[in-house]
């Protein structure tokens, strides 16, 4: 399974572009900060990553301001001719940045 769900802040948004097939596409950078439990200890996790929205999702993402926080979900795909990955956003839910975020928990099998 290839599914990613996280709360992230939009830290950079490029101009809306169009794919060769004519679909709107929007390239973003998102930042995530949380505290997770791993091997019985708390661990702070902070990172930025590339993300993209295609089609109607690109248009929705284009209406979100840089600095806004949202709950996003999608899948990881390769960046053309590279070994890096980009998060393809397929679900988006705006959230209140003042609402407390529960600590993320990673469950080991």
TrEMBL record:
State the protein's purpose.
Involved in the restart of stalled replication forks, which reloads the replicative helicase on sites other than the origin of replication; the PriA-PriB pathway is the major replication restart pathway. During primosome assembly it facilitates complex formation between PriA and DnaT on DNA; stabilizes PriA on DNA. Stimulates the DNA unwinding activity of PriA helicase.
Carries keyword DNA-binding?
A: yes
Single Gene Ontology MF annotation: single-stranded DNA binding
GO cellular component labels: primosome complex
Which protein family is it in? Belongs to the PriB family.
Q: For this UniProt record, give its keywords in alphabetical order, as a comma-separated list.
A: DNA replication, DNA-binding, Primosome
Domain of life, per the record?
Bacteria
Tell me the gene name: priB
Q: Protein name, please?
A: Replication restart protein PriB
Q: In which organism is this protein found?
A: Rivibacter subsaxonicus
What's the subunit arrangement here? Answer: Homodimer. Interacts with PriA and DnaT. Component of the replication restart primosome. Primosome assembly occurs via a 'hand-off' mechanism. PriA binds to replication forks, subsequently PriB then DnaT bind; DnaT then displaces ssDNA to generate the helicase loading substrate.
Example GO biological process: DNA replication, synthesis of primer
């Amino acid at each position: 399974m290839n599914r990613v769900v996280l709360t992230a802040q939009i830290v950079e948004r490029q101009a809306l572009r169009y794919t060769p097939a004519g679909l709107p596409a929007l390239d973003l950078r998102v930042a995530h900060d949380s505290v997770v439990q791993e091997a019985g200890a708390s661990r702070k996790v902070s990172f930025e990553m590339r993300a993209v929205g295609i089609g109607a999702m690109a248009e929705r993402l284009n209406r979100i301001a840089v600095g806004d926080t949202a709950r996003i979900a999608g899948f990881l795909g390769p960046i053309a001719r590279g070994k890096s990955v980009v998060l393809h956003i397929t679900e988006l839910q705006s959230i209140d940045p003042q609402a407390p975020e529960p600590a993320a928990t990673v469950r080991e099998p």
